[in-house]
Write a structure and sequence with these properties.
233 residues, six-stranded mixed β-sheet, globular, binds adenosine-5'-diphosphate
Length: 233
């Protein structure tokens, strides 16, 4: 693969949580580059720092030390307000528990990120487009409770896509799904990646990670190994 400019560039990223008088070194100098168009899985045992790294990459938190550059912009020292702006416009989040609002229709859930953005032309047609991309064009007026778990996660994927983010960050996106449905969701993410989307997922599951093209392994706050995913898995 040719080396394109890094979408994400992280150097010597550390995160120390202080609990009273004790310190937890959740990240110990992580360096990482992710190019535009990559499909990356982050694996590692519980407590190895995966969520902490995802939070930093998603601009939900700031590092104790080290640098983070997203699309050429240094984002590691921004204020909470500026980080919120980046989250809303450049990051699409997908969570294990879907995080849909039960009182809203599928279409209104998907449209939520557009509420925080001015100037989106014809948001309705944008919502229709992304629902079509995840195969739920005929479910726009349903409520989340009327959908299966896999369909709810597809809604969450559509919501993550709607504002056209630079990267999709998915934290255990298949954790609440049976394995066949989980594979199905990974195929949706794989299809988006083939269409050019940059995707980073956190997972405990090697089978799920096998859908990615690059698998990063964390242990005790460090990236210890990297291999290529096995797309036939
Ligand atoms: P993983 O996602 O791989 O399970 P985490 O990033 O959640 O790992 O946690 C890494 C380490 O940091 C763990 O020891 C965890 O207990 C600690 N940790 C995570 N979040 C906090 C926090 N908000 N306050 C204190 N310690 C935390």
């Amino acid at each position: 693969m040719t080396v394109s400019s890094a979408l994400i560039e992280v150097a010597s990223l550390s995160k120390v949580y202080r609990l009273g008088t004790s310190e937890v070194h959740a990240l110990r100098g992580v360096s990482l580059r992710i190019a535009e168009g990559e499909f990356v899985a982050l694996m590692g045992p519980s407590g190895s720092g995966k969520s902490t790294l995802m939070h930093l990459l998603g601009c939900l938190d700031t590092p104790t030390s080290g640098t983070y550059t997203l699309e050429g912009r240094s984002v590691s020292r921004l204020s909470g307000r500026d980080r919120a702006g980046i989250r809303n416009s450049r990051i699409g989040f997908i969570f294990q528990s879907f995080n849909l609002l039960p009182a809203l229709s599928v279409a209104d859930n998907v449209a939520l990120p557009l509420l925080y953005r001015r100037g989106t032309k014809s948001p309705r047609s944008r919502v229709e487009d992304v629902l079509g991309l995840v195969g739920l064009g005929d479910r726009a007026h349903h409520r989340p409770a009327e959908l299966s778990g896999g369909e709810r996660q597809r809604v969450a994927i559509a919501r993550a896509l709607v504002a056209n983010p630079a990267i999709i960050l998915a934290d255990e996106p298949t954790g609440n799904l049976d394995s066949a449905t989980g594979d199905d969701i990974m195929r949706v993410l794989g299809g988006l990646n083939e269409a050019g989307r940059t995707v980073l997922i956190v997972t405990h599951d090697a089978q799920i990670a096998g859908h990615a093209r690059r698998v990063l392994h964390m242990r005790d706050g460090e990236l210890v190994r990297e291999d290529s995913g096995d797309v036939s898995a």
